[in-house]
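User: I need a structural model of SpoIIE family protein phosphatase from Pseudaeromonas paramecii for a docking pre-check later this week. Nothing fancy, just the predicted structure tokens so I can convert them on my end. Input:
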Amino acid sequence: MKTQDKETLVWQAHLPADFSGIRLGRQSLDRVLRCQGWGERQIGHWRRLFTELASRSVHHAHPSCLRVRLYHLEQVWQLEIEDDAPPFDPCQPQPIDLALDEDTLLAEPGWELPDPMLAEVVYRRLPLANLCTLELRQNELHGRILLIHHQLIMRTLLADYLSERFTVSTFGSAREALSVLERQGADLVISDVGQEPFDGLALRFALAEQQRQDLPPFLFLTGSQDPETRLLAAGLGAEDYLLTPVCKAELLAVVSRVLFRQQNRKERCADHLDPLVTASLRPHLPASIAPFGLSMGIRGAKLGGSDFIIQQGRRLILGDVMGRAEQARSFAHAYAGYLRGLLCALPHGWGPAQVLHRLAEIMLEDPLLSQTQVHVLALTLEESGEVTLASAGFPMPWLIGEEAIVPLPDKGQMTGLGGDFHAQESVVPLRQGERLLIHSDGLRCQSNDELPSRWQQDLVAHLRSSAMVPIKETQESILQLFDAHHADLIQDDLTLVLLERLC
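Assistant: Understood. Predicted structure tokens for SpoIIE family protein phosphatase:
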């Protein structure tokens, strides 16, 4: 990415050095990245970083213009922001009080540079200008490609091009690939056309006739510029069309664009479907279970496992299915439904530890569940004002009192349900006005260990200042504070329940 002759200039713009120019550049960058097949999460990350860096220069250095250039080399993208101001490093945090529009508010004096694993920001002083380069990588694609070509030499060459970044299965004819596609599927099919009656077009038509829901995108290769063939491919829903011979760079660029476009479609579909399913896993808790008041809030992530919460009378069960991507989320949906049915069969008088022990026994007996890891917190809200709880790897609640705000000591099993499980119950007597902050792992700010010191300090200070604020307003403000700290970096679901002793 450092050698200019290997880069492709994708977009450039000269912008006014004011906030209207930054807004224009941000909107243009958004459109360019969408055309390149980037997903919503990554586009949002780009917009935020560009806006922050350009705004600092305009606000503090007062240049006369901004020059922006976007370069691309395979998976690496580089955005250059150049200004003609005196020496000024926008990478150094500077306070900005600026609202560009309703979804971008830059009023946080403590904005920090992104994780270097996600992006790299470098400042250089040129003879007469400041140059800030922002380098990002698209998410690695590990798609499975079925390559069909009747010529062995061409098939081998194309497979060699693609195998550096993808898993490639090759076939000499579309008929050979049909049974594999029906049985195993693929993320993309690349096929030549017109060499035999059952060619790539016929294969695409045959799969469409089956009305399959998992039909992969098709990319067709041909040496013919016949417009009828092109129209037929488009009519069958082909994602793209390449004339051979094709060079490696062009092939990889088109394949990446097709796969990212497909991935973006799945994300948009998940945005519509997942909230509906997730809402059923986090039912609306009652405002009170005497003598307690309750308020629940959530933040959902597209990555990672999935949270669920189940209420049965005075019993609450919060769970976190550990895992990644859609598989973990789908399993969480099924697992929560399974738990609902199971809890209905358990005696209502069982305490939290008994409930967790029974769940652990069932998991060990079930060949599927025994291969999963689930963190669970079980609570009983007693009429006396005490809370009895037991944890299996789930974070312990925070006790919010007049004198201190501290996490409760953990007596549970840190590895979750399963194995040689043994849970110990804790009884927490709450006085009037005292609260419990019950939360899943998402509140840890994606940290593996303790809460990052700054986030923890801000959270504790916020809880102290909201001691006399109603719990519903406090719960909502905690999530707003969480959003301000973590913005586009949410990698795990957050479920938060605030519980208060009312009388």
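Before docking, keep this in mind: The first strand starts at residue 8 and ends at 16.
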